Amino acid sequence: MTTDTPNEPPIIQVRNLTKAFGAQKVLQGVNLDVHRGETMVIMGGSGCGKSTLLRHLIGSIRPDEGGILLWGREITALTEAELNEVRKRFGILFQSGALFNSMTVGENVALPLREHTKLDPTTIEIMVKIKLELVGLRQHADKMPAQLSGGMKKRAGLARAIALDPEILFYDEPSAGLDPVTSAEIDRLIMDLSQKLNVTSVVVTHEMDSAFRIADRMCMLDKGVVLRRGARAEFERLRDSRSQDVSDPTERLIRQFLRGEAEGPITDRKEQSDYEEDILMVSTRDER
Amino acid sequence: MRSDPDGSAASGGVGPWRRPLATLGAWVWGPARGFFAQLGGMSLLLASAASWVGRGLVQPQARLKGETLIVQMVRVGVKAIPIVVLVELAIGIILPLQMYPKLDQFGQAEQVATIVAIAAFRELGPLMTAIVLSGFAGASIAAELGTMVTAEEIEALRSMGLNPVRFLVVPRILATLLMTVLLSVIADVVMVAGGMLTSVRLGIDSDVYYRLSVEAINITGFVTGLVKAGVFGLLVGLNSCHLGLSVQPWQGSDGVGQATTRTVVNSIVAIIGADAVFTVIFYAYGLFS
């Protein structure tokens, strides 16, 4: 749900983002806006650049070209200290939870509170309990991360991400490695938090069930380029359309992805191979 | 068209040598560049860690928590005590056996005590302790930090606005430095004791041994040994933290393994190098009288 007032600029603005790792072009001229309060799902196949895009948004990587504005501030122009101030206003759930293995769950959640606030230990303890209760882990505060299941690790990571009541939450493949039920539970948490805490959510995923559950708006990446961005309803329409109604190659590609089909433009693209030549070369080589 | 891909025929003399020279250059430049990169990285890390320690002294909230340091010290040093004791005791027992025959020829048999004491406090105590710890502490710290990189923990720390040098590197470097110093003291004593065990068997009176040992060690000898131990510990800590944090996430466990072995190798080389430099300096300043 967008609670944006019409004149307010988007809380996240990505302009012409370009990044290459050596010769590999990972992102090419990506433009994206995320509005306050909405849930934006960034999706695409493996290697499309979505995780790299996320890392740019949180300031872990710097682009070759282009800019990223959070709350109207260009984050690539900030000093480390200024960036750290901005980082207090958002939270990230990493793919594996990224809990600190040497600390208990409770200590993990308490860390941002201890370091970034002047709250006394008792208040911190109460806040940790509140955060853990929100994600359903209050009973497990004294466990070490190694003792948790995959789903629990993610929930603990989420509790830590919301410790400072951030305005934006980033999720890196929240459903990865989870069974369908746990995945649905995490999705519910994402939606709950979005409503209860009125946070803006940016979710990178390629699980379409999940994506359609939680998204307000969606953005599809392929090979570092934005193929399409828009409201969820648009993508739903494309997904549910009949084959013959869709002729544009880009739309057909997107639809194959949305539906999770084994045949289509994406697989055609992969199958241009030199299989026959390779086999022939081997047999002729051995004949000599 | 004549075959002359480099155009080398035109330049006359250098031509035929170009490729072998290029190969030789690459063969030398690769490791040289790696060495300078490592040196640079460690210097930056040292500067960063030092600045955090400095800030910690001035600002209470930036200060290192005592329990973090204790945990690291236990992990780095306490568990290494048995092996350090073993190594030093063994050297202490063996050394007199090597030297006794020759010294006895000159009628100076009891000077075995002096030699063992000097060797222990000035050289072998700090050196062997540091080498043992480069395996114990260095490898384990590099592996731990490298694994944290691959598990996205370091990135998570940064994304929370927390500095990995302050949280992870400073306690570990301080711990390796302090524990190397403390362990070398233990090592020194143990080695002298081992020497006494053998010397007594060889017929040297234990009181004589004790007296000569004490005479051989002056404050200067003791302190120079500790200074060396501190520097060695620092080198182990810097190497391990730098190599551990330099692992790239995509390298996975292979990267961690490489970082671990490189830490041990680099630490030992650095320790020996520093030892040589120190020894020359101390000698030049006449601290060895």
Task: Please provide a written account of the structure.
- The complex is a heterodimer of chains A (288) and B (289).
- By secondary structure, chain A is α/β, with parallel strands linked by helices.
- Chain A has a domain of 47 residues.
- Chain A is built from eleven helices and ten strands.
- A six-stranded mixed sheet of chain A has the order 6-7-8-3-9-10, with helices on both faces. Chain A has a four-stranded antiparallel sheet with strand order 2-1-4-5, with helices on one face.
- The longest helix of chain A is centred in the middle third of the chain and has 17 residues.
- The termini of chain A are far apart.
- The model of chain A has no long low-confidence stretch (mean pLDDT 89).
- Chain B has one domain.
- Chain B is globular and about 65 Å long.
- Chains A and B meet through helix 2 and helix 3 of A and helix 6 of B.
Short account of what is shown:
The complex is a heterodimer of chains A (288) and B (289). Chain A has 288 residues and is of the alpha/beta class. Chain A contains 11 helices and 10 strands.
Question: What keywords describe this structure?
Answer:
heterodimer; A: 288 residues; alpha/beta; 6-stranded mixed beta sheet; 4-stranded antiparallel beta sheet; 22% strand; globular; B: 289 residues; 10 helices
**End-to-end distance of chain A:** 69 Å
Amount of helix of chain B: over 70%
**Major beta sheet summary of chain B:** none
Total domain modules of chain B? 1
Largest sheet of chain A: 6 strands, mixed
* Silhouette of chain A: globular
Topology:
The complex is a heterodimer of chains A (288) and B (289).
Chain A: E1 12-21, E2 24-34, E3 39-43, H1 50-57, E4 65-70, E5 73-74, H2 80-87, E6 90-93, H3 105-116, H4 121-135, H5 150-161, E7 168-172, H6 180-196, E8 200-205, H7 208-214, E9 217-222, E10 225-231, H8 232-240, H9 249-259, H10 265-270, H11 275-287
Parallel strand pairs in A: 3-8, 3-9, 6-7, 7-8
Antiparallel strand pairs in A: 1-2, 1-4, 4-5, 9-10
Chain B: H1 8-11, H2 18-58, H3 66-76, H4 81-105, H5 112-150, H6 153-159, H7 164-202, H8 206-216, H9 219-245, H10 252-284
Helix pairs in contact in B: 2-7, 2-9, 3-7, 4-5, 4-7, 5-7, 5-8, 5-9, 5-10, 7-8, 7-9, 9-10
